[in-house]
Amino acid sequence: MRDNALLGPAEIRELAERAGVRPTKTLGQNFVIDPNTIRRIIATAGVEPGETVLEVGPGLGSLTLGLLDAAERVVAVEIDPPLAEQLPETAARFRPGSAGRLDVVLSDALRVTELPAAPDALVANLPYNVAVPVLIHLLETFPTLKHGLVMVQDEVADRLAAGPGSKVYGVPSVKASWFAEVRKAGVIGTNVFWPAPKIRSGLVAFVRREEPLAQVDRRTLFDVVDAAFAQRRKTLRSALSGWAGSGAEAERILRRAGVDPGLRGERLSVEDFARIAAAADAPAEGSRG
Ligand code: SAM
């Protein structure tokens, strides 16, 4: 990475004023004001010089400038018009000559389906209220995304990286691990942001699986996962009865998948869930006469 200046508190305040932006909670606007945090994110993300990086929520550009130093190209998706509008000016001012390497897309990251370039990596300080759905949507929509590093609420970071049996293992853990190997990559304090959030943040790194874990319909799989955790304390037989149509049908599918119907969802790995989805989609025994 080239050793260029990054944005500190004074620059962030000035840029916010210039854009006429007052940070809002609704859009999860907490801007990084600490160059060392940006350096740490970039170093942990392992971005290669030839890569195209997707950044969600570039805000005032703290992370974008670091990414422009580390990557070939940055595609930044921002929902807030004044921030999206100002970003190219900020890049031109702090990184003269980077104009051809930055694309700013004014869009909701939850809905974006096309980008000006295929992204290799996702590096983002995600808006906290939509962090998990954004991550899952992007992994699903852009198969070229091979790896990434996202900053989320620390508690969400723990959930994303949890494995079966952990207290915080749940829907985000299983869905993320369907696409990628996920690990927690650090904790970030509150004072590196303006405004400072109440709770600390966590870094989550992921590397996409080269091969899918199983040949199953992803929607069926995610429906099973949603149903299994919607009633966390119930056994799978009971939790999946609505999804399967009845308790007896849920039991039949679970037995066919080789999963004990008396277990709870929190014990199952993503591979177990995939076997249940496959068993549900397979033709019923005897249906071929
Ligand atoms: N990357 C900047 C930084 O680190 O200082 C800002 C991060 S701030 C936590 C989240 C950013 O995401 C804000 O700029 C906010 O406007 C933007 N945002 C919120 N919801 C979004 C969405 N659905 N799609 C795209 N951007 C969104």
- Low confidence ranges: none
Order of helices and strands: HEHEHEHEEHEHHEEEHHHHH
Biggest beta sheet attributes: 7 strands, mixed
Question: How many domains in all?
Answer: 2
Basic shape: elongated
Structural class per helix/strand content?
alpha/beta
Average pLDDT score: 95
Q: Give the tally of β-strands.
A: 9
> How helical, in percent, are the residues?
40-55%
Structure description:
With 289 residues, this protein is α/β, with parallel strands linked by helices. The protein folds into two domains: 9-208, Vaccinia Virus protein VP39 (Rossmann fold); 218-281, Helicase, Ruva Protein, domain 3, CATH 1.10.8. The protein has helices at 9-19, 35-45, 62-70, 81-94, 131-141, 154-161, 171-179, 218-230, 236-239, 241-244, 247-256, 270-281; strands at 31-32, 52-56, 73-78, 102-106, 121-125, 147-153, 180-188, 193-194, 201-208. The strands form two sheets. The chain has a seven-stranded mixed β-sheet, sandwiched between helices. A two-stranded antiparallel sheet has the order 1-8. Strand 3, helix 4 (81-94) and strand 4 form a beta-alpha-beta unit. Helix 5 runs parallel beside helix 7 (171-179). The mean pLDDT is 95. The site of S-adenosylmethionine (SAM) has 23 residues, from strand 1, helix 3 and strand 3.
